[in-house]
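As the next step, I wrote out a protein sequence along with its fold in token form, included below for the reader:
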Amino acid sequence: MIYGNFILKYLKDKFLKEDPQSSSHWQFFHQFLEIDNNLNIKQTLGFGDGKKKYKLLADLIHRIFQFPLIFLEKKSSYFYRLYKIGRENTFYTGNHFSLDALRQVFTLNYLKKKELILKHRICIVIGDGFGSLTSLLLRSELSEKVIMVNLTKTLFVDVASILAFPEFSNNYAIVLVRSKREMEEAISNTSVKVIALEAQNYHLLSASKAELAFNIASMQEMDMVNIENYFKQFRNLAKQKQFYFYCCNRDSKILPDGSEICFDKYPWSSNDKHFFDEKCPWHTHYYTIRPPFYKKYDGPIKHRFTLVSENKNDKEIFKK
């Protein structure tokens, strides 16, 4: 088990090794990730709006463009609590409170309004950008512990962001696990709040005892075989207790190698129970400083909240 800041050195030392879970999408974007000799992030591209110059001016611009989106949202005291925490989080990380961060506030508020998210002891976040959903879950007390799964290079950025928070900066609040035994130890240790997991070790999720997983706009950038691997872990967890999955991804996306990743072709089961399955209302447009300012995404984005079945499909049940 690797603790605290030592995780960054461990991950950085693996940058030159090929990541078996990396799709053509991430093989392209990871070439723009720059880390200096002091393990500080100099540049990122392709996974959120990170640290940039002129932060105060940029934050003001984001706030102006976000106003119409927030105005149209049916707000509540809980929404404002999440919104406040989300904005506070960027104070520690030095990132902007961008549209990506605002969407995560919308997501948790929506699930809360529908009474679909209670206080879950252990959550999984797959493909978090800058640890923003992880920090929001923990600092809003919606989760006691979060397993943060990502590709090695992107996980470095997630971990560096989480370490910026005073409550997670000590060497025992965040750990990286590499075996089933380490996962079980981290789960049972109440001092551990964040468990970092390299995507290539996805199979350790079965030992996590997690109750809820999130994937927001990153499965659409994975190879289908890796999506299938995650669903297998979800179904293994569903055999242990009720397990839920919130998935928000593009209907269809073409990766740089020409492969098409389709939401409805993920390995869903006819035995899964979907509490909602619809176009995501806050994932229709993005804003830019160039006219016409608000633009539609390349394709529709849908979201689904699912009680995952332990069985893959009806045919498997029939065969048994």
Summary: Residues 2-12+26-319 form a domain with the Rossmann fold fold (CATH 3.40.50.150). The chain has one domain: 2-12+26-319.
